[in-house]
Amino acid sequence: MDINELLAQKDKLPNVPDVVKELIQVLSDEKANLDTIAKKVAKDPTLSVKILRMVNSSYYGLPRKVDSIDEAIVRIGFERLKVLVISSGLSGSVTGEVEGLDIKRFWNESFEMGEICKIIAKKTSAVDANVAFTAGIISNIGRLLLHLTTPNRAKAVQALVDEGGNRNDAELDRFQFTSPQAGAALLELWHLPTELCIAVLQQRAPLDHAKPSPLSAVICMAEQMMSARKKGATAKDIVDAVSFPLVALAGIKDGLGDIAEQVVTLESMNIV
């Protein structure tokens, strides 16, 4: 099977609003016209409803209900709103059930990955925190793509993983490519920044690539930390679980213990 065969199934691909793609393009551009983007968001009723639902969730703990995008900007700030626009747009890109995948759990765990990536990125100048958050959210978009376009093969891969098998090996056996490769191809199709495409592609083994991406190291570290966190790890356990060559690639010189403490105390995402 070829990745292009998956991408050719246009009716099955996630449908991400153009305004979300536009915002991702300018995440680290300080000169971007964010007011224009905010107005576009406000004019998209479906996206606006999802954003306001998230703003008013218990996760943000606001004292009273927010009723408009403009009010949301005032109450939580534009930086946090940018994150919500991307989160809402991506999580709303697939409607209905996805065969073999708990879509609500998938997106909540994706947002959790995003939060951990952002925590890590705040300790390095090599990676922008907002870009890291977005990278974390979309890091597993390839798995979603496989379930949407080839559910039987995707379920077979998951069955092997559930039995203790290696996901990378299982995907290569069933598809002849991996979900990060499929995810990177989808991001390229959406014309998202090259930095994100490369990071998603390299995420499982950044140091195996000739030009490893610091952002891919952040994603890989976040995955290691999230896996340890699911097992009830302490902050020390999480530090021990991280590959130190990845820490160096991410540009983190100190503060790993603080990162681990924040990961341990991070509230589980439940905003979808």
TrEMBL record:
Residues 13-206 form the HDOD domain. This is HDOD domain-containing protein. InterPro entries: HDOD, RNase_Y/CdgJ. Coiled coil: none annotated. PROSITE patterns: HDOD. SUPFAM superfamilies: HD-domain/PDEase-like. It comes from Pseudomonas neustonica. Gene3D superfamilies: Hypothetical protein af1432.
